[in-house]
Specification:
Layout lengths: L1 H13 L11 E7 L12 H10 L4 E9 L9 H9 L2 E10 L2 E9 L3 E9 L6 E10 L2 E9 L5 H18 L4 E6 L7 H4 L7 E2 L2 E2 L15 E6 L2 E2 L3 E3 L11 E6 L3
Parallel strand pairs: 1-2, 7-8, 10-13
Antiparallel strand pairs: 1-14, 2-4, 3-4, 5-6, 6-7, 8-11, 9-11, 12-14, 13-14
Length: about 260
């Protein structure tokens, strides 16, 4: 018996704690990575990965991700973060940039499939939403990310409307959408996701997410259809790894 306990103890200690919401919750992290550059001007994917792992996520939705761009050392950032966090990944290109690609990524504990890139209208920097399907303990789930226009509310509103329609067409089942909306909670943009079948998950505590050091703008959100938030979204008090703070939300099946 002592031998068995000796062998099991390291394994038991290695099992991550799932937090107060329990093991049946699905934890989703969303984070604008600023192509891996922190508020201190340093690029450090290991630091980003450590923050992600500290939240014990099932799914991670990432914006401003580089793929082999010169400015970020030619690294495939989605693949490297997946390696560092031991998660699976998909990457969606918004545009070619600096010798590589720039876009969004999804990491997941569960297999990912059916990646779709939804191009959003408007001039200026190309904007997209991405979506992928994953099989969770709750059943099939569509996970989506978005990064909307900065500085033009009218263009941003149209992008939100197009993204909403595209995602609802992709899936009739549960959807978790998260990202950098570049819009405040009171905006017309967020109003698109404040009506059925969508729910914008409210935040607890300090809601501001940008800039990371002393945030004064709440522009990063998690939106859901067909799942129940276990508790409000939490803004992680991370000040160095990016120019945004990450957010984490836990979901359960509807009661």
């Amino acid at each position: 018996m002592k031998v068995i306990l000796t062998l099991l103890t390291p394994l038991l200690l290695a099992v991550p704690c799932r937090g107060a919401e329990g093991s049946k919750a699905l934890r989703v992290v969303s984070w604008n990575l600023h192509h891996g550059e922190g508020s201190d001007g340093k690029q450090d994917l290991a630091r980003i990965a450590a923050v992600i792992q500290s939240q014990e996520p099932d799914v991670v939705v990432l914006q401003e991700v580089d793929n082999k761009c010169k400015r970020s050392g030619g690294v495939d950032q989605a693949a490297e973060l997946a390696r560092l966090t031991n998660l699976q990944y998909v990457f969606g290109k918004a545009m070619d940039h600096d010798g590589g690609e720039y876009g969004q990524a999804i990491l997941s504990r569960f297999p990912l499939s059916d990646l779709k890139i939804h191009k959003l209208p408007g001039e200026g920097e190309p904007r997209i939403a991405i979506s992928a399907r994953t099989e969770t303990p709750f059943g099939p789930l569509t996970v989506a990310g978005v990064h909307l226009d900065y500085g033009d509310p009218a263009r941003q509103l149209v992008q939100a409307q197009v993204a909403s329609a595209a995602l609802l067409e992709v899936s009739t089942g549960p959807i978790v959408l998260a990202g950098d909306f570049n819009a405040t909670a009171e905006s017309k943009t967020l109003a698109v996701f404040s009506q059925a079948p969508w729910i914008v998950v409210p935040k607890s505590g300090s809601a501001a997410t940008e800039p990371a050091v002393k945030p004064d703008k709440e522009i990063d959100f998690t939106v859901v259809k067909g799942l129940r938030p276990v508790k409000p979204t939490v803004v992680v008090a991370e000040t160095a790894a990016s120019d945004h703070r990450p957010i984490v939300t836990a979901f359960a099946k509807p009661e």
